[in-house]
Specification:
- A four-stranded mixed sheet has the order 2-1-3-4, covered by helices on one side.
- The chain has two domains: 76 residues, Glutaredoxin (3-Layer(aba) Sandwich), CATH 3.40.30; 116 residues, Glutathione S-transferase Yfyf (Class Pi), Chain A, domain 2 (Up-down Bundle), CATH 1.20.1050.10.
- It is globular and about 50 Å long.
- 52% of the residues lie in helices and 7% in strands.
- With 226 residues, it is α+β, with helices and mostly antiparallel strands.
- The chain binds glutathione.
- Glutathione binds next to helix 3.
- This is Glutathione S-transferase.
């Protein structure tokens, strides 16, 4: 059985969960308390970060993979039955650009300032949240939701005509921020309409059922008609 070592509110882990589900690949989730720095986990990923995927159903050998971009590319190559990076080289480059946008720029400007400050810092023993960082995250998210709206006015999905890795990367980040109630959906109708479409996919259902001990999501988190 494939095993995904993860953290519940890690956007990178959520992206891999979505990819595996879209490709209809069975897997088991194992929560990894990265802050414990388990030696067996460090042996799999010396960076001591989740996600790590152990794929013992790979064609020739068991694969131990770290870093969500690397894992996404691997899954795309080994399990091409439902492509998430599709089209011409230029179209594939655009999907990769947007995935990198959300996993890099969005993560730095929004996710880390909100989920990182409010939850991950405490778990990693890095002290309390910085109100300045939270203010920055709450302000920055508007620009990114506007950008999603801009893309959706021109395309069916973020990366083009089809649901792609770009949508899954973006939705993985937003789902974590939505869990802590910090996405101003009502001020961004186009982005909200796009998220409702991603959210209603069967691959998204397990994410909507996630509940972290000691921190419940707002009522609209799992509501498809939010
Ligand atoms: N570039 C990595 C980033 C992964 C990452 O930042 N994981 C976080 C959780 S969201 C983590 O494991 N942090 C623990 C640490 O850095 O010590 C990826 O795409 O997989």
């Amino acid at each position: 059985m494939r095993i995904l070592y993860h953290q519940w509110l890690s956007p990178f882990c959520r992206k891999i969960r979505l990819i595996l589900a879209e490709k209809d690949l069975a897997f088991e989730l194992k929560e990894e308390r990265v802050w414990d720095r388990r030696s067996d986990f460090l042996a799999m990923n010396p960076a001591c970060q989740v996600p790590v995927l152990v794929d013992d159903e790979a064609p020739n050998e068991t694969a131990v993979l770290a870093d969500s971009t690397v894992i996404a590319e691997y899954l795309e190559e080994v399990y091409p039955q439902r492509l998430l990076i599709m089209g011409s080289p230029v179209e594939r480059a655009e999907i990769r650009r947007l995935s990198a946008w959300f996993d890099g720029k969005f993560d730095e400007e929004v996710t880390r300032n909100l989920v990182g400050e409010k939850l991950m810092k405490r778990l990693l023993g890095l002290g309390g949240p910085s109100s300045e960082a939270i203010r920055a995250g709450l302000s920055n998210i508007h620009y990114h939701l506007d950008y999603i709206g801009y893309l959706c006015e021109r395309r069916t999905w973020l990366g083009g005509d089809h649901l792609s890795l770009a949508d899954l990367a973006a939705a993985a980040h937003l789902s974590c921020i939505d869990y802590i109630g910090n996405v101003p959906w009502d001020e961004h109708g186009d982005a909200k309409e796009w998220y409702a479409r991603v959210k209603s996919r069967p691959s998204f259902r397990p994410l909507l059922a996630d509940r972290m001990a000691g921190s419940a999501p707002p009522a609209h988190y799992a509501d498809l008609d939010f």
